[in-house]
Every structure is written in structure tokens, then in C-alpha cells.
Design a protein that fits this description.
CATH class of chain C: Mainly Alpha
CATH topology of chain C: ABC transporter involved in vitamin B12 uptake, BtuC
Radius of gyration of chain B: 29 Å
CATH class of the largest domain in chain B: Alpha Beta
Number of strands of chain C: 4
CATH topology of the largest domain in chain B: Rossmann fold
CATH superfamily of the largest domain in chain B: P-loop containing nucleotide triphosphate hydrolases
Distance between the termini of chain B: 74 Å
Number of domains of chain B: 2
CATH architecture of chain C: Orthogonal Bundle
Order of helices and strands of chain C: HHHHEEEHHHHEHHH
Strand content of chain B: 5-15%
Distance between the termini of chain C: 47 Å
Helix content of chain C: over 70%
Oligomer: heterotrimer
Chains: A alpha/beta (338), B alpha/beta (620), C mainly alpha (287)
Strand order of the largest sheet of chain C: 1-4
């Protein structure tokens, strides 16, 4: 399925988990290659946080395995997984509010400082370089930072250990859109440094601009998995139940990741589709960095086209949609009945 | 109470009353054993008293030995021949009354506190009693204490320990029956709801403050009686008899037996008195101190392995088998598939009799109206000057990104919290300062993001809890199982059964709701909200966790609620197509403020909504 | 007055365990008594100098506290607070039973580290031990503060106190943090016991627990939120006690002082449900 030759950095197989006799995960498998961003999307209650907690070691799996860097870590405590090279950016950022920025970073570096205290200074300096805003607020209590600054701190905290993989849980939750934009830049930096990432996101539009592979989690099962370039608009719409509105923006984002696609209005009731011109497959993750420049140029172009098409079709689409709903017709949706 | 239960109790009563006196006269089990057993029975009664407060209502009390002491001293002073010399039953009555009264007085201030703070407050009460009141000269003549006579009924004096044991057994039976009636009534359900989550309890119409006080008072009465039982057994009490150490023993018995379990608590009490007695009889004085050491070690071990007490350990063993079956099936590939494919039709519940009269809003005004509501947490404005109007017969939607303040706004409107500014009016009445249970009684029903059900109660019990407001019978009726209570309970159960049947959930009727899937819990919750025919139904993310197919069914159900059941709805949602399909009107919040309001199809296309809510990436 | 400082010391122990692991260790005070017995035995029976006895007592208490956490508390992963409290009560009973068996209930006297009646200040005698107590309380708070903020492990303890799950996700070894917290709190109890024993004269089984309960009340009054709250609470309770005894000392109803202290504590808790320093906390925001 992956076509990716390298050995996966993290591989979870057939995870089942839950609370008491209430099962939440029904056999979840997920794989991340080194330097890759794997995205996991799903509605509230789909099991995203439980999955992340199992991967982090906070919740035990009922069955299944988690292998990291060739090692079976299924039974390992969270602390030991951090020491093994897995970093965490928990849901809600969870910075320690009564500790300063500096102290938060030091806590993040707990396991690496035990191994090697001397290089800490260098690593700390590098984090401050990457996130200058943190450097400005070194002595400030983390609880007094703004949402965006806390997000930067949470990411910095995870990175200071020089992990191979970080688990990022809904980083955009509760952040204003402008900050989310900055967050995207931060996370992109992370990946450029070669750190792999599993990103769980509620905000699909945001997630799509970052990830290499997309997984869709629904009521405890992975119902779709594949490179973001091959992600079918219809699948997204069906599985996540995103509707006409999101279709437009998400389609735009999706088109942006698929350098050979453009957004067109197609269906009679004003639905937008992403149309693929006979395509090359999206370059593999390893060649991402090199191909990035080409992609971004194309992306801008595609987006410009998309916007033109969108605006032109907007009025027609809207008119058609309002007409449909006024007639009391049953909701016409792009969702296919499964 | 049903006839079979009456008969069963009668048989037990006769057995209790007859067997011990017979055994005594036949020479089995001397006075020592009967006295020990009588002490155990009194202790069990004290444990059951504490169980009402800690096990059912979930409030910590470290003052129950003191309450028992109040009862014992009261009975002692009244019945002692050199004092008032009154008959035993008057003493027992006085014991219950005084103890209940003091429990009420202490409860008034103390129950505003929670957890550790409540524990410390009750602990202080215990010490205060122990050091001052119990030593007061007019009560106990210094530390000389009070002598209590064995009861005298007519000319029959309960001198023989065996006879007295029969008496306390009968009293224990009385307490047991009262407790059973309690748990089967609206009181028991209300207590457990409070223990589970006070906000959810209030949303079902439970006056939390009043019920906590009620639990405390009832518990006090039982403790007082138990204290009298104990006092007349040992026949001499002083300030040390009911000191703080005794309270600790009570807590240990209740926790070790299992919070909320009658059988567990009684067994633990029996064990506590019998274990040392047996050791003494077997080893005499050779043990000398080892028994306490062994006992304490045993306690630590048991609690460490079974924090829920022995009752929990037994329940756990049974549940474990079921859970393991589920896990094995899961590992083997077959998954416990409770994915919901459909949302069943909500039962059409006619407005139940017994509800308080509901007002109506003036024509043209909103059914539920919130104006200029502001809620601040510390320095953060979670809701900033937001106004929402819901008119009768409409389905109104409220959307916004995570953290926009939607649930906080809901809480301000439903009474789960008091806003810092603004007004809320319901059915034409100003309810800005009314607590949640009052608004519930007026006709407001709501669901919660994290499922507002009492987790440990079954589906049926939750549906009964939801009908709390129409359980129009009093405490006495509930406890005695006489009067209006049995008939009304039957009606409530019938309605609950009908609702379960309409949902098709018969096989889940007695399952604790925490064991159902998220979607199933949501359905039960909505049924609970509807069961008292509220005028307005507020739903917080009803589609969360549902598969798309189920969401479509949900949309239809929401339409039905309006068209067939005549409800008015206010819905928070993240699922945009559902909102567009179902809502007549849409409000959009972002960062605590109202961003937009109007026709759904039109509102979602506005730039500011698209930008804020959808977090659109500004193209590079 | 010195009693207030000692209550503050016990209160620090309470706050440490409560913030660090969310529990209250009812045996904490009695572990201190156990240490006291050890000190007594080494000083009186073995003739060792006071300071050695003190060190032995403190170290022993630390080991007992940490060991109890490791073997009894750590397995109780899903237990609610009441069950954990009961486990600690069981431990308290165990220690009391142990002391009764092996040391007999008769009181002992541990000679103070520094002899002498001391200086008179404002009508109260302030013995050298009392000076020592003040000094120690200050030293302990400062020392603890330094350890907690400056060392990695200490920082881990602080982090775990704010957010145990978050701390684990950062790699902080929660198990070791718990043991440290419980052990240190027990050691502090032993220290407090050592300091107050000379003032109160003789000691017997159960002796320290009563003081511990007052320390618990002090911690609660201070709001269970911080070390400073603990010290403030301790001093407050100490002052109230003395003040009440002065005013009501002559009244015929016995134990009035306890009644009034109880009343005052109740009043404080009702007026400030989060404790005296609660105003400095921020309410949790919803969604």
C-alpha cells in the first residue's frame, strides 16, 4: 500500500483498546516512515485521542503491538517511550502553567539531560533560535503566554529531546485562525528537521496542508489510508461528513497538495469536485524536500485557478442549493451510502 | 412494596425475634457471644448510616461516630433510671431525633464544602463533640459517663443478652428495609446522581443542596438509632466510646465492605467484631497485640488490591469474565460491533401529570431568551456579550470552532453556571438567578457534550432519574414504602419501560450506561431529556461520535422532535451538513463573541464565518 | 506560637503529598512518632548524640514513607481518594499496633537538643528549641524550594504536581516522584516531631498524629494549594488556638477551645471555600 521502501519508524498493528468493557479501538493499524507526517482525521468520538494515548503509552492496548525503531514498545511506560525517542505535544498543549518557559523546556529535556547534560545548552539555544518568541519570554510563566506562544512552547518542549518521532494531538484546537497559520509553519519546520510526526486533527483543512499520508478514523476503525495525493474528495466528504461549505475550502487545500488537480464545479446541485487531469503520482515523501519548490509554484497556480473557478461558480451553486433546500428536497449530499 | 417482599420480611422478622431467645434458653452461645454479635449489629447499623452519605450520595463524613454518640447519650439520659427513666422506645425515638437534628445543623454549613474540605469540617465536628459536648456535666457528669439500662417493654426486661440481641436484630431489619426502600425510590436515584455528577443531577431537576442535606439528615437519624442500640448493649458509655477513632473504624468498615453495598457493609461490620473475638477465644491472652497488627496488615492488603471494597471485588470478578470475553473476541478479529447504524425514533411521551404548572411566553416573544450574557473565568472572557433568542417551534443551531464558548453559553442558559452579566428568560419568566433544577422544572431540558447520564446507573434507572420531577411523593412515603410512593414508582417504571421498548433497547434495560457505546448512550440521554416533555430541548453536539449513516437518521429524528412532538430545539453542532439540513436559524460564535446570526445557508457562506470557523489557510 | 510553626511544618508535608499525588497520608504523623521512638532508643539506650538520633529518625521515616507508597499505594491505580485514605488509615493502625506491642504505651522523654528554659519575650518563654523550630521551618521551606526549582528531579515533582499525565508525557518518572514525595513528607513529620517533643514533654504512641491532624487542618485552611499557604495556615491555626485558650480558658464547659477552633475553621472554609489563599487561583475555563 505504501510503495515506500524504507522500514517504518513506528508501526502499530491491530490495536484494540477501551475502558472497562467498552471498546473504543477495533483493530487500528498505522505506520509512519522516518521523516514522514502521517495524519489521522476523524469526527469527535471516533477514537483519535484513545489511539494517541495508546501510542504514547498512557492507555494500555488490549491487543496488538506497537513497534518503534525496531523495538517492541507495546508494554513500555510513557516515560520510557520518551527516552526511546518519541516526543509528545498533547491535546491542549498542556504546558505547565506555574513553571517558566525555560523550566518547561528543561522538563521537556528531562530524559536527554539524564543522558547528556552538556549538550543541553546547545540544544536549548537551537530551540530559542527556532522559536525566537520563546527566547523573548524565557523567564515568563507559561500560564501567562498566549495560545500561539503556548503552542510554540509545546512543540519546542517536544523537540528539545531530539526525538525521532513526535505525536501531535489536535494542535490547532482553540487557536485563532491566524495563529493556526503560524502553527502550520512551526510544524513544517519540525518535519524539515527530519523528525517524523503523527498528527491528529479535527481541522481537516489545516491537516491536509501538512500531511504526507492521510488516515481516516471512524468509530474505532481506519476506514481510509493513503498518500494525500491520492485522497479522493468524495471519500473525504463521505467519511468525515463534511459538507458543501467545507468542500470548497478543503477541496482547495486538497487540490493544493495534488499538483495536477483543480477545483471545478460539476454536479447539478452545485457540489464542487476536485478533478484530476491525467496524473503523475505525487512524489514520494523522501523526495519531498526537492520537489517542494515545484509543488509550491504549482500550488499557487492551481489555487489561483481554483479561486477563479470557485467565484464564478459560487453564484450558480448557491442559487441551485437554495432552490433545492426550499423545495424541501431530502438533503442531497455527496455522501455515498455505505 | 410488593406482597412477596412483605412476606419475606415478615418471615425474617419472626426468625430474628424468635431464634436468639430460644438459643439462649437452651444454653447455646453464652452472653459473651450475644453481646459481641449485638455490638456487631449496632456497628452494622452505624455503617449503613454512613453508607447513605458516603456510599450513595458520595459525600465524605468523618463525624458519624459523633452522631451515633449523640443518639446514645440522648437515649441514655432519657432512659436511665436515675435520670428521666423513660421507656426504651422513647429513648430510641429521641436518639433518632436528636441525631438527625444535629446532622441537619452541621450539614447546613458543611455541605457547601466538598471532598477534603468537607472531611476536615466533619472531623472538626467530631473532635468538638468528643472534647466538649460529650463531656458536658449535665450530660455525662464529667467523664464518668452514662449508664444505660437494658430496655423494658411492659414487664419484660431484656436482661439476657440473647433477648436483647433479638431486639437489635429486629431494629437492624427495620433499618435494612428503610434503606432498601430508599434505594428504590427517587431519593436513592437522586443521591447516586449527585455522587456521579452534580451538574447532571441538577439538569434532571434534582435540588442538589436539598438532597445532600436530606441524605445527611436521614443518615443522622439512623446513626442515632444505631448509637442507642450500641449504648444499651454495652450499658456504659462516655466521651471515649464515640471518639474520632471510632469514626475512623466506621469509615474503614464502609469502604472495606464496599461503598454503596448494604451486604458489604454489614459483612464488614460483622467481621470487625467477630474476628478479634474469635482470636481471643482461640488464643486467649497469648496474642497480646498481634491481633491488631494482623488486622491492620489485612486491611492494607485488602484495600490495596480491591480499592472498591469487597463488594466491588465480587462484582469485578463477575464483570471481568464478561469483559474478558469481549477482549478475546476483539483480539480474535470478531469485534464487539455496536456501531450504530440508525437512530431509533424517540418515543412520543405525553406530558406527564404531576409536573409543576408551566408558564407560557407572550406571543411573539422568544421561548428561551438570553440577552447580553457575559461569563468570565479569571481574566478570560469565555462569553462576551452574547444574545440568543429561541422562538417556539424552531430548531436553532449554534456553531463555532472549538473554544468559542458555545458550551459555556449553554451552561449560562441552562443554569449550570451563573453568568457574570446579562439576563436569561424562559417561558416569559426571568430565570437569570434560578438554579438548574428550577429551570428544569419550568420546562428546560438539556444534553451534555460528555453524555449527561449517571454512569453507574442502568438505562432503566436513568430513565427513572429523568422523571425525578414527576415523582410526586414525600420522603416518608419513600422510606416506608407506603402511601403514594409505590403507585407512583410503578407509573414511572411503566413509562420507562415504554420508552425503552420504543427505542428497541430492551436488552440493555439493566445495563449500566457506562457499558454502552457512545452512540447508544447518546440515544438514551436524548430519551431521558424528552421523557418529561420539556418545552425547549438544548442538545450539545448530539451527533458527536456517530457514523455518517446514523447522523442522517439523527437529522430525521430532530425534525420529528419538532414536527411530531412539538418541541423547540437549540443545538450545538460541529457537523455542518446536519446543521444546514435541520436548523431554521443559525448563530455563530467565535472567541466568546457572536459572529453571525441568520438563515443557515446564507450565514455559512459569509466570509467572516468561513474564515473564523473553518480556519481557512490564507494562501501563500 | 512555636506550635504554629510546627503545624506549618506538618502542613507542608500534607501539601507536598496532596499536590504531588492527590492523596492525604493519614499515617504521616505516626511515621514521625516511629522515628521519634528510634531517636529515643538511640539516644537514651545507646547513648548516641542527639544529632545522630535525629538523623536516624529522619532517614528511617523517609524510608518507611517511600516504602509504603511503593508497595501499598502504587498498585492502587484506579482507586478513588477515599480508598487511598483508608489504606493510609490502615497503615496508621498498623504503626500504632506495632508501637503498642513493642514499645508499650507508657510515655517516654527525649531530652532536647539544647537545654535551658530560654528567653522571655512578651510574657511567653521562648526556649532554645523553639528558636530552633523557627529556624528549621524556614530552612526546610527554603531548602525544599531550592531542590524543587533548581534540580531536574525537583522540577519534575513540581510539574507532576501541576499535571501528572503531562509530566509523564515529558519523560518524568512518575513512580520515583511519588516515592520521593511520600518519603520526604514522612521525613518532615519526623523532623517536626523531634522539634516539638521537648516542648510538650513526654511522647507516646499516637502523640504526633494529633499534631498531624492539626497540621492537616492548617493545610486545608491555607487552601492546600502551596507551601506558603501551608505555612500561613499553620501559623493561623496556632494563633487561633492560643488566642481561644486565653479568652475561653476559664469557662466551665470543657473543650470549649476545641469547639471554637472548629467553628473558626468551619467559618474560614465557608467564607473562602478554597482556603485562605484561594483567591490567587484561577477558575478552570470550559469550552
Amino acid at each position: 500500500m505504501t510503495g515506500n521502501g524504507s522500514r517504518p519508524l513506528l508501526e502499530a498493528r491491530d490495536l484494540t483498546a477501551g475502558f472497562g468493557s467498552h471498546q473504543v479501538l477495533h483493530g487500528v493499524s498505522i505506520r509512519v516512515a522516518p521523516g514522514e507526517i502521517a495524519g489521522v482525521f476523524g469526527l469527535n468520538g471516533a477514537g483519535k485521542s484513545v489511539m494517541m494515548k495508546v501510542l504514547a503509552g498512557m492507555v494500555p492496548a488490549w491487543s496488538g503491538t506497537v513497534t518503534f525503531d525496531g523495538r517492541d514498545v507495546t508494554m513500555l511506560s510513557p516515560e520510557k517511550r520518551v527516552a526511546a525517542g518519541i516526543g509528545n505535544v498533547p491535546q491542549g498543549r498542556q504546558v505547565f502553567p506555574a513553571l517558566t518557559v525555560d523550566e518547561n523546556l528543561r522538563i521537556g529535556a528531562y530524559t536527554s539531560r539524564r543522558r547528556d547534560k552538556h549538550s543541553y545548552g546547545t540544544r536549548l539555544a537551537r530551540i530559542y533560535e527556532q522559536f525566537p518568541i520563546l527566547g523573548q519570554r524565557r523567564g515568563q510563566l507559561a500560564g501567562s503566554l498566549s495560545g500561539g506562544e503556548q503552542a510554540a512552547l509545546a512543540v519546542g518542549r517536544a523537540l528539545i529531546n531530539a526525538p525521532k518521532l513526535i505525536l501531535v494531538d489536535e494542535p490547532s484546537a482553540g487557536l485563532a485562525p491566524k495563529i493556526v497559520h503560524e502553527l502550520g509553519d512551526i510544524l513544517r519546520q519540525v518535519v524539515e528537521a527530519g523528525v517524523a510526526m503523527i498528527l491528529v486533527e479535527q481541522n481537516v483543512t489545516f491537516g491536509l496542508t501538512l500531511v504526507d499520508r492521510a488516515h481516516i478514523l471512524q468509530t474505532g476503525r481506519i476506514v481510509h489510508e493513503g498518500p494525500v495525493g491520492e485522497l479522493d474528495h468524495g471519500t473525504l466528504a463521505t467519511q468525515l461528513g463534511i459538507g458543501r461549505m467545507l468542500t470548497r475550502t478543503t477541496a482547495t487545500a486538497l487540490a493544493g497538495r495534488q499538483d495536477d488537480a483543480e477545483v471545478v464545479a460539476e454536479t447539478p446541485d452545485g457540489e464542487l469536485r476536485v478533478k484530476r487531469t491525467p496524473a503523475k503520482k505525487k512524489p514520494a515523501a523522501r523526495k519531498r524536500a526537492a520537489a517542494k519548490k515545484t509543488v509550491s509554484r504549482k500550488t499557487t497556480a492551481t489555487r489561483a485557478t481554483a479561486r477563479k473557478t470557485t467565484t464564478a461558480k459560487k453564484t450558480t451553486a448557491r442559487a441551485r442549493a437554495t432552490k433545492a433546500s426550499r423545495n424541501g428536497a431530502p438533503p442531497r449530499s455527496t455522501r455515498k451510502k455505505t | 412494596m410488593t406482597d412477596t417482599r412483605w412476606k419475606r420480611y415478615l418471615i425474617v422478622l419472626i426468625a430474628f425475634a424468635a431464634i436468639p431467645p430460644v438459643l439462649t434458653r437452651m444454653g447455646f452461645l453464652g452472653d459473651f457471644w450475644f453481646e459481641t454479635l449485638a455490638k456487631g449489629v449496632a456497628l452494622a447499623a452505624m455503617g449503613l448510616a454512613l453508607n447513605v452519605v458516603m456510599g450513595y450520595a458520595g459525600q465524605i463524613s468523618l463525624g458519624h461516630a459523633a452522631l451515633a454518640g449523640v443518639g446514645a447519650f440522648a437515649s441514655g439520659v432519657l432512659t436511665a433510671p436515675d435520670r428521666f427513666g423513660l421507656p426504651f422506645f422513647l429513648g430510641a425515638l429521641a436518639a433518632m431525633t436528636f441525631a438527625a437534628g444535629i446532622a441537619f445543623l452541621i450539614g447546613l454549613p458543611a455541605l457547601r464544602l466538598k471532598g477534603v474540605y468537607l472531611a476536615v469540617a466533619t472531623m472538626g465536628f467530631a473532635f468538638a463533640m468528643q472534647e466538649s459536648l460529650f463531656r458536658a456535666p449535665f450530660i455525662s457528669r464529667g467523664s464518668a459517663g452514662v449508664e444505660l439500662p437494658r430496655p423494658l417493654i411492659g414487664t419484660f426486661e431484656f436482661l439476657r443478652a440473647g433477648d436483647y440481641f433479638a431486639l437489635v436484630l429486629v431494629l437492624l431489619l427495620l433499618v435494612w428495609v428503610l434503606d432498601t426502600n430508599l434505594t428504590r425510590s427517587k431519593l436513592g436515584r437522586a443521591f447516586q446522581a449527585i455522587r456521579s455528577d452534580e451538574t447532571i443531577a441538577a439538569s434532571f431537576g434534582v435540588d442538589v443542596t436539598r438532597y445532600k442535606l436530606l441524605a445527611f439528615t436521614i443518615s443522622g437519624a439512623i446513626a442515632g438509632l444505631a448509637g442507642a442500640m450500641y449504648g444499651h448493649t454495652v450499658q456504659f458509655i462516655n466521651a471515649e466510646t464515640f471518639d474520632f477513632d471510632q469514626t475512623i473504624i466506621l469509615v474503614i468498615i464502609v469502604v472495606l465492605g464496599g461503598l454503596g453495598s448494604r451486604v458489604g457493609v454489614t459483612s464488614a461490620a460483622a467481621f470487625y467484631v467477630l474476628f478479634p473475638a474469635i482470636l481471643v477465644k482461640l488464643f486467649g491472652n497469648k496474642l497480646l497485640g498481634w491481633d491488631f497488627i494482623i488486622g491492620a496488615a489485612l486491611l492494607i492488603y485488602t484495600i490495596s488490591k480491591h480499592p472498591g471494597g469487597l463488594a466491588e471485588a465480587v462484582r469485578h470478578a463477575r464483570e471481568k469474565k464478561a469483559a474478558r470475553a469481549v477482549r478475546d473476541a476483539a483480539a480474535g478479529g470478531a469485534t464487539h460491533d455496536d456501531t450504530l447504524a440508525d437512530v431509533p425514533a424517540m418515543p412520543d411521551m405525553p406530558r406527564p401529570a404531576g409536573l409543576p404548572e408551566r408558564t407560557t411566553e407572550a406571543t411573539g416573544t422568544a421561548l428561551l431568551s438570553a440577552r447580553d450574557v457575559t461569563v468570565s473565568f479569571g481574566g478570560l472572557r469565555a462569553v462576551d456579550d452574547v444574545s440568543i433568542d429561541v422562538h417556539r417551534g424552531r430548531i436553532v443551531g449554534l456553531i463555532g470552532p472549538n473554544g468559542a464558548g458555545k458550551t459555556t453559553m449553554f451552561n449560562a442558559m441552562s443554569g449550570a453556571l451563573t453568568p457574570d452579566g446579562g439576563r436569561v428568560s424562559l417561558l416569559g419568566r426571568d430565570v437569570s438567578n434560578a438554579p438548574a433544577h428550577v429551570r428544569a422544572a419550568l420546562g428546560l431540558g438539556r444534553s451534555f457534550q460528555m453524555i449527561g447520564l449517571a454512569r453507574d446507573l442502568s438505562v432503566t434507572e436513568n430513565l427513572l432519574l429523568a422523571q425525578h420531577m414527576v415523582a410526586a411523593y414525600g420522603t416518608a412515603s419513600a422510606l416506608l414504602g407506603l402511601g403514594k410512593a409505590p403507585r407512583i414508582e410503578r407509573e414511572l417504571r411503566t413509562r420507562a419501560r415504554e420508552a425503552i421498548a420504543a427505542l428497541g433497547f430492551e436488552r440493555y434495560a439493566d445495563t449500566p450506561v457506562k457499558n454502552l457505546s457512545h452512540g447508544q448512550q447518546r440515544i438514551v440521554e436524548i430519551a431521558c431529556v424528552l421523557v418529561t416533555a420539556p418545552e425547549i430541548v438544548m442538545l450539545d453536539e448530539p451527533s458527536a461520535g456517530m457514523a455518517p449513516a446514523a447522523v442522517e437518521a439523527l437529522a430525521q429524528r430532530l425534525h420529528d422532535m419538532r414536527d411530531q412532538l412539538g418541541r423547540t430545539l437549540l443545538v450545538i453542532e460541529h457537523n455542518i451538513p446536519l446543521v444546514l439540513d435541520v436548523c431554521d436559524e443559525l448563530y455563530v460564535m467565535n472567541s466568546g463573541q457572536l459572529l453571525a446570526h441568520g438563515d443557515p445557508d446564507e450565514v455559512v457562506k459569509r466570509d467572516e464565518v468561513v474564515g473564523a470557523y473553518l480556519g481557512e489557510m490564507v494562501p501563500a | 506560637m512555636a506550635a504554629g510553626a510546627i503545624y506549618g511544618l506538618f502542613a507542608i508535608g500534607v501539601v507536598l503529598v496532596y499536590r504531588g499525588t492527590g492523596a492525604i497520608n493519614f499515617a504521616q504523623g505516626e511515621i514521625g512518632t516511629l522515628g521519634l521512638f528510634l531517636a529515643w532508643w538511640s539516644v537514651t539506650e545507646q547513648g548516641l548524640p542527639w544529632i545522630v538520633g535525629a538523623i536516624l529518625a529522619i532517614a528511617f521515616a523517609a524510608v518507611v514513607g517511600a516504602g509504603f507508597e511503593r508497595f501499598a499505594i502504587r498498585p492502587m491505580v484506579n482507586a478513588n481518594r477515599v480508598a487511598i485514605a483508608v489504606a493510609t488509615i490502615g497503615f496508621l493502625s498498623l504503626i500504632l499496633a506495632f508501637e503498642a506491642k513493642f514499645f508499650s504505651p507508657s510515655p517516654r522523654v527525649l531530652p532536647p537538643p539544647i537545654e535551658g528554659v530560654g528567653v522571655e519575650i512578651a510574657g511567653y518563654f521562648v526556649s532554645p528549641t523553639m528558636w530552633l523550630s523557627f529556624a528549621v521551618v524556614v530552612a526546610v521551606s527554603l531548602g525544599l524550594g531550592v531542590v524543587l526549582r533548581k534540580t531536574d528531579f525537583g522540577l519534575g515533582v513540581l510539574a507532576a504536581a501541576q499535571d501528572p499525565a503531562g509530566a509523564r508525557l515529558m519523560g518524568v518518572p512518575f513512580n520515583r516522584v511519588s516515592m520521593f514525595v511520600w518519603g520526604t513528607a514522612a521525613a518532615i513529620s519526623a523532623l517536626g516531631a523531634l522539634l516539638i517533643a521537648p516542648t510538650l514533654g513526654a511522647f507516646a504512641p499516637g502523640f504526633v498524629s494529633l499534631l498531624f491532624l492539626k497540621g492537616l487542618a492548617a493545610a486545608v485552611v491555607g487552601g492546600l494549594g502551596s507551601m506558603s499557604g501551608a505555612i500561613v495556615g499553620g501559623i493561623a491555626v496556632g494563633i487561633i488556638e492560643v488566642w481561644v485558650k486565653d479568652i475561653f480558658g476559664g469557662v466551665t464547659l470543657p473543650g470549649v477551645d476545641v469547639l471554637v477552633v472548629f467553628g473558626v475553621i468551619l467559618l474560614v472554609l465557608i467564607l473562602r471555600p478554597g482556603g485562605l489563599l484561594a483567591g490567587l487561583k484561577v477558575r478552570e475555563a470550559g469550552a
